[in-house]
Automatic annotation (TrEMBL):
Any GO BP annotation: response to hydrogen peroxide
Name the UniProt record assigns to this protein: Anaerobic carbon monoxide dehydrogenase catalytic beta subunit
Cited Pfam families: Prismane
Residue spans crossing the bilayer: none
SUPFAM superfamilies found in the cross-reference section: Prismane protein-like
PANTHER family referenced in this protein's UniProt entry, alphabetically: CARBON MONOXIDE DEHYDROGENASE, HYDROXYLAMINE REDUCTASE
Example of a GO MF term: hydroxylamine reductase activity
Keywords for the protein's UniProt record, in alphabetical order: 4Fe-4S, Iron, Iron-sulfur, Metal-binding, Nickel, Oxidoreductase
Native source species: uncultured prokaryote
InterPro entries recorded: CO_DH_a-bundle, HCP/CODH, Prismane-like_a/b-sand, Prismane-like_sf
């Protein structure tokens, strides 16, 4: 039989907990570092620069929440001070994450009681790495508690900061009807794919693809124009702000190149297969990396910088257009499969839709009250979030899809993002017609809100 402990005396619980906490540290680092980068973009924003403030109302609201003075000040001075406060959330020496004050009093008291209120984001990651280093914590419960604390620093720190600042810079999403799956690629257009997680990069590429001069240049090369599509979380970002169509999720990224129709795939960070560089060489596709965080051998590396972002994007799109003539028709096949989807539901849009079913004479507007009442009365049985990647260990998308279908059939509302949202798109579950497979309660809610 296997020994109950390792040579150092650590048992299976300690070993598993150490590995688990280190996985949380990697995830927290990735998502929170995304927020750090977008804060630096906000810090560099200016009225005549590549990046401007698109949602001034949300900026003022956040500035007030964080104690930044706003009266009589230039909007960009306010933005730069907000960026400084946000950046301090990563390394401030004292106190807890500012956004945990958004949680309910009950939840905050629980975190305080359990000693897991999240401090500075970087501190929680460093603490976790120190605890899991050789010769330190072997108490599984203490390790899991640090994992919880670090997760809260990510969710109520990095992830929430990233969402708020992205909306301020690029606009709070609105509802769009778009399409998803490989069929969104176009045979007679220059296809540019944006892939990864960083909207600062993809926003500039989408802007460049809409440039009139570049569209005319694409037509001069024999195409009908430029078709920009998204992969993974970048797909979500550009879909809910521009209506850009989604080519697929995590396990579909290689399939996009396999169509032979992609002139250029531009990637930033996270969820990018190293195999794409080798695969692209089998076709005419140019594979471009843009971040020092995600360097991949065999790619064309163009480090994206805020001060030159738009010009860099235009140069890349022009390069993609020039590559259109290098397509090999014998390798070209675009599956016709695609589904329509309605996307773009931040909290503001959800409340706006709910206001349409509220009796303004007697009920509170500008709140989630209609949904809460529907849950309280039993019309809906609750809500769940489904996020994240599909897995090559199981049939692609199968688990996500079956779980979603079962939940909505039982009147449970789903909030989907990440690759789960693209899976739902491909399965037709983000189409309003999907109400026909919902339970009677959720179906009725869909009809009222529509």
């Amino acid at each position: 039989p296997k020994a109950p402990r390792g040579i150092c005396g650590a048992d299976a619980h300690a070993i598993a907990a150490r590995n688990y906490v280190r996985s949380i540290a990697a995830g927290t680092s990735s998502h929170s570092d995304h927020a750090r980068e977008i804060l630096h973009v906000l810090k560099a924003a200016s009225a005549d620069g590549n990046y401007q403030i698109r949602d001034e109302i949300k900026l003022i609201k956040l500035a007030t929440e964080w104690g930044v003075k706003t009266d009589g000040r230039d909007i960009y001075d306010i933005a730069h001070d907000v960026a400084d406060v946000g950046l301090l959330e990563f390394g401030k020496p004292d106190g807890f994450q500012l956004f945990i004050r958004r949680a309910t009093d009950e939840r905050q008291k629980l975190w305080e009681k359990e000693g897991i209120q999240p401090r500075a984001i970087d501190r929680e990651v460093v603490t976790a790495m120190h605890m899991t280093h050789m010769g330190n914590t072997s108490d599984a419960e203490a390790l899991v508690r640090q994992g919880l604390r670090m997760s809260l620093a990510n969710g109520w720190g990095g992830s929430m900061i990233g969402t708020e600042i992205t909306d301020i810079l690029f606009g709070t999403p609105t509802v769009w009807t778009t399409e998803g799956n490989l069929g969104v690629l176009e045979k007679d257009m220059v296809n540019v794919v944006v892939h990864g997680h960083d909207p600062a990069f993809s926003e500039m590429l989408v802007t460049a693809c809409e440039d009139r001069e570049l569209i005319e240049y694409a037509r001069s090369k024999g195409s009908k124009g430029i078709n920009v599509v998204g992969l993974c979380c970048t797909a979500n970002e550009v879909a809910m702000r521009h209506g850009v169509r989604m080519a697929g999720n995590f396990l579909q990224q290689e399939n996009v190149v396999l169509t032979g129709a992609v002139e250029m795939m531009c990637v930033d960070t996270q969820c990018i297969f190293p195999a794409l560089a080798t695969l692209a060489q089998c076709f005419h596709t140019k594979f471009v990396t843009s971040s020092p965080i995600a360097r991949i051998p065999g790619s064309e590396y163009v480090e994206f910088k805020p001060e030159t972002a738009l010009q860099q994007a235009k140069d890349l799109v022009r390069e993609a257009i020039d590559n259109y003539q290098n397509r090999d028709e014998s390798k070209l096949y675009i599956p016709p499969t695609k589904q329509t989807a309605t996307v773009g539901y931040p909290t503001e849009q959800i409340i706006k839709h709910l206001d349409n079913v509220t009796n303004s004479h007697v009920d509170e507007i500008g709140s989630y009250r209609p949904v809460i009442d529907a849950v309280r009365s039993g019309v809906l049985r609750g809500a769940v979030a489904i996020v994240g990647r599909n897995n090559p260990r199981v049939r692609p998308d199968y688990s996500h899809m079956e779980i979603m279908k079962e939940l909505i059939a039982n009147d449970i509302l789903i909030v989907a993002t990440g690759c789960a949202a693209q899976m739902a798109t491909k399965a037709g579950l983000l189409n309003k017609e999907a109400k026909c497979i919902c339970g009677e309660g959720l179906k009725r809610v869909c009809e009222l809100v529509d």
